[in-house]
Amino acid sequence: MIRVLLVDDQPLIRSGFRALLDLEDDIEVVAEAGDGEEGLSLAREHLPDVALIDIRMPVVDGIETTRRIAADPDLSGVHVVILTNYGFDQYVFDALRAGAAGFLVKDIVPEDFLHAVRVAARGDVLLAPSITRKLINRYVDQPLHTGPSAGLEELTNREREAVALVAQGLSNDQIAARMVISALTAKTHINRAMTKLRARDRAQLVIHAYESGLVAPRNR
């Protein structure tokens, strides 16, 4: 059973998502919160698999809530998915840097929403190529920080190659085909790179790749 925590300051939004999730046999909404502070408390109490968190809330916003969840060792199994009305913007970018595994726009179709929850629960959240392109564009618009990055020198050549392909938006199967290795080996390279770079998930791995200068964006 996938355990979900809903954190949104709009009761109507929460009730809509809950109604949709409650129809699924393999998903259970364990708690709801109207702000980030309450959401963090409930996350510690219920240890959900997935926390769906609105990015803009009173008291404690979604970015700070995500940061606190990512920093708490007891919540390492909680996968944060950011909810937003605005598509990919600076707030979403900051949330990804804070430790969110991905994000959903609130007008997403129900089938895609349910699929995203299940993917997040497996810990297999990855950024879709369209989102990766927006991350890249974010870096095209500002100078790269290409100084030394903690852990980067510890990566093997194959791990660096795998990280670079993750930053291009490729899946494990696509990375395996490109590197001519098995999907399991590709996943191993990526997981080891995440450990060495202290990246919580693939979203942070992508950001780390660009901030470190391991991958450079092309000009538009």
TrEMBL record:
Example GO biological process: phosphorelay signal transduction system
UniProt GO molecular function: DNA binding
Location of the HTH luxR-type domain: 148-213
Lineage: superkingdom: Bacteria
Domain Response regulatory intervals: 3-121
One Pfam family here: GerE
Modified residues (4-aspartylphosphate): 54
SMART domains xref list: HTH_LUXR, REC
Keywords, alphabetical: DNA-binding, Phosphoprotein, Transcription, Transcription regulation
PANTHER family, A to Z: TRANSCRIPTIONAL REGULATORY PROTEIN NARL-RELATED, TWO-COMPONENT RESPONSE REGULATOR
Annotated protein name in UniProt: LuxR family transcriptional regulator
Species: Streptomyces resistomycificus
